[in-house]
């Protein structure tokens, strides 16, 4: 038995040892973080049969697969795509960055891009981007997030916009005009309550991810922008949720929740299934990702921009930016992929054909969008949308323990009087070094 | 192994150094080599790396930026979840240990007593142990899901409040590990010689008296082993909370190891601070284990 006890102590030590080893290996070999030299290659890059590697996160798997397949089919270079689960992506990129093992190309959630650019993970591609004849038509939200000190580091890979989606069948059933979107947040709340009042089994007015910081950022920030306000200062180190617009938004949702018009599982929703209720046709209207338009086929859905209190319309221009990694030795070939990705061939014949949003405004009215007026709406709202820029965005908003989540949950379920200190907590995370 | 080496050395002191004893010493070291290599590669080297990391500025994305002690340690202590995570981890450990040891012993006695259903019972309690903890957590994630779970009709929110989340997770752990602890207890119970029970019966001891005066004292080594395993395992809890609650709702279920993960990979992205917290946890765990071993050892002799 004594031997057993020794064994258990050793095992305990080993457990810690192994877990610390994982941490250690994640970062060992670190060192030099000096930004690699800028990329400046021929306008088209090189297509000489090189094998390239590309990483992206799971939510954009569909679009990434389509793009990579189309590129591999038409080029000598071959791109190998690795899709990483959303929650593990930062850890994987971090480990690779520390050990100089980043792939040639990798995509990043656009809200993390400013931080990753600052950490030197991407190479400066300004001179090549500036040669593009349509460079001013590339989505400005993404370009701004990927620009530091006037140098450009990323291009938009896939755009994901938050839009107001409504279920036309449920609208009809509730006696609402199925062709008309609510023009203000107040109307949105009233419509949700009317659909709730139908009393249909398992059917709710609206839904959202109230335990998912990323979902709330994506769907609630646009209401602030629609009313002409800002969520942060321009430097992204001060939160701004104590203004009247934000207060009105929080009150609207608090009222919606207490009236029972919100899907009950929204309260604990951490993001894995936050869109499922609407996709299944059980939710009347909701702020929803535009990338899911092509998978929302069970019923007729309407699409509009997200309204704010008193009107207006905006969207969160999310999705991923993509750039050449600091560790890539094949910059000319990597640029060949990026150059093709921005071309009309890729934007229209791959993305638009799949009902996805194009990242060039000059291609917004393409032949596929013309078939579905909802796509025209999405492409138009994309121009009015914003991408918030802050270095500590992940910690302040997206993380499971973020102060933003605490603020929203207090405002919707808890002590609404805590707005000032909760806002202050976000600011202190945003401004920490 | 140490026994071999020391006796070899003792002999060397008394006698003249003979080639056979030297050969024996070399053999001893050879026997010990695999374990030594294992410990050095998987424990000592990572430990040194982590200690170095804990005294360096080491962001996840840009690597080692040089020595900065003791900044990381002060940052850990000032982390807004540091105290909460320790309190929660201890609370969870006490709950899980009491339930698992109690149930493990109870199930072992049940299985031992009943003769007819013995094999069926033993198998059914042990089956959950065959499932990995992460898979079991995912299974319960679906079971508890208010959107897709089979129990959603009950209108109970399994993970919606801090207490519900704690109890729901503890239930998963009890389901997953009770069979394992039952097995350990069974081994201990079978190690108690039958004639002791026979003597007790001859003396007219009641069932309760037999349990109190014979089973429990003779089971002490097993209880020591299971308690240490259970306490250590619970203090290092991660997967179940990572998958089921992600530390929520409202940051009420963040364990210490989860905090290490959060600091390293979810936002702060600071491996230095995470390493500092790892070192603190390691020291605390070693101390707790030493204390437990002491406590059980003095009682034993």
Automatic annotation (TrEMBL), chain A:
Pfam families reported in the protein's UniProt record: SBP_bac_8 (PF13416)
InterPro entries cross-referenced by the UniProt entry: SBP
The keyword Transport appears for this protein: yes
GO molecular function: maltose binding
SUPFAM superfamilies in the cross-refs: Periplasmic binding protein-like II
Keywords attached to this entry: Signal, Sugar transport, Transport
Keyword Signal assigned: yes
Gene Ontology process terms (BP): maltodextrin transmembrane transport; maltose transport
Superkingdom of origin organism: Bacteria
CDD domains tied to this protein: PBP2_TMBP_like
Segment forming the signal sequence: 1-26
GO cellular component annotations of the record: ATP-binding cassette (ABC) transporter complex, substrate-binding subunit-containing
Family named by the database record: Belongs to the bacterial solute-binding protein 1 family.
Record's protein name: Multiple sugar transport system substrate-binding protein
Native organism taxonomy: Bacteria, Bacillati, Actinomycetota, Actinomycetes, Propionibacteriales
UniProtKB/TrEMBL annotation, chain B:
Membrane topology type: Multi-pass membrane protein
UniProt keyword list: Cell membrane, Membrane, Sugar transport, Transmembrane, Transmembrane helix, Transport
Domain of life, source organism: Bacteria
InterPro entries: MetI-like, MetI-like_sf, UgpAE/MalFG_permease
Domain called ABC transmembrane type-1: residue spans: 86-292
Keyword Transmembrane attributed: yes
SUPFAM superfamilies, sorted: MetI-like
Transmembrane regions: 29-51, 92-111, 123-144, 164-184, 222-243, 271-291
Any one Gene Ontology cellular component term annotated for this protein: plasma membrane
Gene3D superfamilies in the record: MetI-like
Subcellular location: Cell membrane
GO BP term, pick one: transmembrane transport
Similarity comment text for this entry: Belongs to the binding-protein-dependent transport system permease family.
Protein's UniProt name: Multiple sugar transport system permease protein
Species lineage: Bacteria, Bacillati, Actinomycetota, Actinomycetes, Propionibacteriales
